[in-house]
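Posting for a labmate who doesn't have an account.
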Amino acid sequence: MPTRKRKGMAPGANREIRMSINYRYTKHQVARGSRADAERNDALFLIKNVSCLRLTYQIRLLTFRADETGRKLVIRIPSICVIHSTLREFQKIHSKVVRLESM
């Protein structure tokens, strides 16, 4: 599980981030990756034009990346989009990193 130290921690202190990611591999054993639609110094943006949004590997991977770089993940969706319960739960757990916005 990837770990990192938080800023301002005493030397020797070892606290782990509670989010872990299980990398998925392609047919030829290359780790899958994901890129945000747009990036800013303080945020990654993912724009989805769907009627129902579920928790996907792309969202989990971008959340991990945003957390590692100290940014927020902003997911922009249409106002009529229905959010699946798994994504709602994930958003509650990672509320400091993931934000949903209606377009």
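Reply:
Got it, the structure tokens are right above this. The longest strand covers residues 72-77.
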